[in-house]
Amino acid sequence: MRYIPHTQEDIEAMLKTIGAASVDELFDGVPENLRHRELLPLPAALPEPELRKELTELAQMNQSVSQRKNFLGGGAYHHYVPSVIAPLVKRGEFLTAYTPYQPEVSQGTLQAIFEFQTMVCELTGMEVANASNYDLSTACPEAIMMAARINNKKKVLVARSTNPQYRDVIRTYFHSLDFEIEEVNFGSDGRVDADDLNQKLDDSVCALLVQSPNFFGVIEDMKSLGSKTKDLPALFISATPDPLAFSFYSPAEAGADIAIAEGMSFGLGLNYGGPYLGLFATKQEYIRQMPGRIVGQTEDTKGRSGYVLTFSTREQHIRREKATSNICTNQGLCALMASIYLSLLGPAGLESLAKLNFSRRDLFETEIKKTTPNAVVFSAPKFNETVVKLDQSVAQKVIALGKDGFLPGIDLSSFYPELENHLLVCTTEMNQEVDIKMLASRLVGA
Amino acid sequence: MKSKEGTVYKQSRKGRQGFSINDRAVADKNISDYLPKDLIRTNKARLPELSEFDVVRHYTRLSQQNFAIDTNFYPLGSCTMKYNPRINEETSSYDGFANTHPWQYQHTVQGNLKLMYELGESLKTITGMAGVTLQPAAGAHGEFTGLLCIRAFLENQGNPRKKVIIPDSAHGTNPSSAKLCGYDIVKIPTGPEGIMDVAAVAKVMDEDVAALMVTNPSTLGIFEKNIKEIADLVHDKGGFVYCDGANMNAVMGNVVVADLGVDCLHFNLHKTFTTPHGGGGPGSGPIVVSELLEPFLPKPVIKKTNEGRYVAEFDRPQSIGRVRAFFGNFGMLVRAYTYIRELGPEGIKQVSDMAVLNANYIRARLKDHYSLAFEAPSMHEVVFSDKSLKGTKVKTLDVAKRLLEFGMHAPTIYFPITVSGALMIEPTETENKETLDEFCETMIQIAKEAKESPEKLTEAPQNTFRSRLNEVKAVREPVLREQW
Q1: Cβ distance of B279 and A333 shorter than 8 Å
Q2: A229 and A119, same structural domain?
Q3: Residue A75 sits in which domain range?
Q4: How many helices (H) and strands (E) does chain A have?
Q5: How far lies A83's CA from each of A211, A267, B55, in Å?
Q6: Within this chain, do residues A94 and A240 fall inside the same structural domain, yes or no?
Q7: Does the beta-carbon distance from A63 to B104 stay under 8 Å?
Q8: DSSP three-state, residue B75
Q9: A273 and B432: CB-CB below 8 Å?
Q10: Position A5 in a domain
Q11: Predicted ipTM of the assembly
Q12: How far apart are CA B248 and CA B72, in angstroms?
């Protein structure tokens, strides 16, 4: 076994020092009736050449987006991953360190997180950010629980246009906690239905969580939504699935109390849904209620600037059941990937990438309207994603287009019964114009 | 080596850019060409501006300010800092895995589903359990998921119950996860042998208790030898036994946890199965459960059909629902699967054999120089208290800081909280005897210095990138982001 260094002589010498006759004897603390003496019926060990072959073959059983024309989004966006990210994060010094418990020998990780926190604050406009959450789906319930710690309320309003998987996660988290989760419907333009919201929003509400751009790609009027909670105890939680949207949208300017986002777009790659990266930011006054690790700047005994994990008294290893969250391990390396990505991108890159994404979606909408003017159902402004009404079932269409190499989009009918035959199509800078045109021409009418 | 690396913002110069993309088509456009003005932010995000090479050098330099498994012995107890095989990094980056989309139709991702199914089967085999989910994103998330399954089962029977019993030596995540599931915590003390006391459990076990959470081997590195008796006690009153699997590296291949009466266990793939710790994640926290709890697992559950196809099964009416979007930290699952396939059944057993040998070797070499917290046999880690330091001018913290000067990461300190000034040492199986010897000799020297020249400890570390950092100042005058 190449990962284990022990020679027979080592083992014998070590046993002698220990004063044990055999390695087996070292397990004497385990009662005999609980010892397992047979080998486990696991698949036989593979040497590296066979291992590589086996994993290569497994990977080849999949159709990757690099071989297909991918138009799937829905919380996982196919953006370009620059080549320098992998070699940097795969440096052993980053890859194989752990949570920086000994700051004197972890300044690399700590400074990188400090820079990450700064970038998240800049993107969201918020005052403080943590070192990351698992992803956006789990950041949603974490943000709601944080709101509940601040205002002690238990009724939560969630926009129904929020990713259905995120809403599932919210329901799972709060099922046992005696919270009331109520959904706010969307209107005919694809945005939150203001009347429905006005009816449901009152003094008893803990938080209003709205995703923008929402699951339909529609950009919500977050400023107007934020103003509704302003004079109420309710906190306004802004959730952003593709953080490229921060090129034009600032949660702070919309009045968000907590801004959360999915960071996978920033150089992480699709990875079949994970690992991803939860961005989490809030106002300074709420810092002690924020979940997750936080890095702060301080000085060493020689007066040199340095970084440490701070505000730890919020955390499980100190506060145990009174902690703000049970999070211990988060998404450290993913936060590093996002930091590297954003350092490469800069403000100009962020803007041109956003414009490219807008233009690709515009092209798709223009093309599809050529043949079917009313195929695009929601009228409000959109980013990256478009809901298209088909004239047949999505399943049939997907199979037909799949034969020509398309992954055409997400079938909305199982999440929104009223959207039967509706397809959610995502376009990013990775979609070639020729493919966008071809998809548009083949989706409806033809 | 450069002792100071300015932040990425300090190195920013207006007009530089390290990103390459064909944006000619939109060069003359503005965001306002696509959006009404009132939807566009007033203050733009300030991101740093650097060339690609500036970025590469900055992050390379930062990396050099870290201790890591690859560069230093890293005996951080409870964290299982073992070698992370590079083949895992290679396989997880294969196009077929890394570039698949989580909304893809199942017939286009049979390789992913097969890998998840097979990994799940292996985790079931290693533990002897009936069901598995790979969805939880980290160990603590797995604890939460497992407890929710227990709660759902009990709720289904008419009463979710009110309490969870947790030993005082448990990881902080245990009580925190139980609280998150709506339970009150009943803390029980560690017995005189360093393990749970059967009588102490019997005293608090009643029909209001949903579960007992146990870490086995315990955070003291000691096998809970009364576990079966305790499990029977808990089961008799209709409760469940949850096992924190953080220490599976000590027992896999030698103990099958189903035999212990465990109903649910989470793995930390970043501990036991060598997925990299990444400076604090991503982790991955699959859970395995008994037959009773299987219907309550998060959905989807990955199944194999009679025709040999792999499917994500969503039609699970009793499921607790999703605990995370998509399928969990899939990239970590590829790494763990690769590792298990490399090891095979002999390798799995050899891992825990050698992990236990290494810990006991350190114990044997250090027990006359430091005070063992408990005399009971050690498994994969050994815990010392600060008793031997009493009467000197140094604390456990000083021992840890002095170790850094010798180029070794400190053990976990002050945990478990039940041991005064705990030093928790977990060498793992991938360290060779020479490294262990060097560590032990250094520790012995430090013990001597503690008595003869304590300032060497209290002023340490001097030769690291920074000396001790002022944590009080960090809280009193918080600077949590770059300031302009």
Answers
A1: yes
A2: yes
A3: 69-80+347-443
A4: 13, 14
A5: 31, 9, 12
A6: yes
A7: yes
A8: coil
A9: no
A10: no
A11: 0.98
A12: 23
Q: Count of A–B CB contacts within 8 Å?
A: 691
DSSP assignment of A261-299: EE-TTTTT--GGG-S--EEEEE-GGGGGG--S--EEEEE
Kindly report the CATH number assigned to the domain that includes residue B129.
3.40.640.10
Note whether A40 contacts B85, CB cutoff 8 Å: no
Element (H, E) at B174: helix B173-180
How many whole angstroms separate alpha carbon B35 and alpha carbon B31? Answer: 6
Name the minimum distance, in Å, from the CA of B69 to any CA of chain A: 5
Q: Round to whole Å and give the CA distance between A157 and A146.
A: 14
Strand order in the sheet with B131-133: B131-133, B287-289, B264-266, B240-244, B209-215, B163-167, B184-188
Terminal-to-terminal C-alpha distance of chain A: 60
| Averaged pLDDT, groups of 10, chain A, 446 residues long | 97 98 97 97 98 98 97 98 98 97 98 98 98 98 97 97 98 92 98 98 98 98 97 97 98 98 98 98 97 97 97 88 90 98 97 97 96 93 97 91 95 96 98 96 80
Task: Give the domain extent around B61.
Answer: 1-65
- For residue B175, give both structure tokens: 């009580």
Distance CA A355, CA A244 (A): 10
Radius of gyration of chain A (CA): 25
Domain boundary among A308, A340, A372: A340
DSSP letter (8 states) at residue B381: -
Say what the alpha-carbon torsion angle A398, A403, A405, A408 is, to the nearest 10 degrees: -10
H-helix or E-strand containing B304? strand B301-304
pLDDT in tens, B137-158: 999 999 999 999 999 999 999 9
* Nearest Cβ partner for B35 among A248, A317, A407: A248
Q: Are strands A155-159 and A180-184 parallel, antiparallel or unpaired?
A: parallel
Q: Are B384 and B403 in contact (CB under 8 A)?
A: no
DSSP state string for A392-442 = S-HHHHHHHHHTTTEE--EE-TTT-GGGTTEEEEE--TTS-HHHHHHHHHH
Q: Is B15 left (phi over 0), alpha (psi -120 to 50) or beta?
A: left
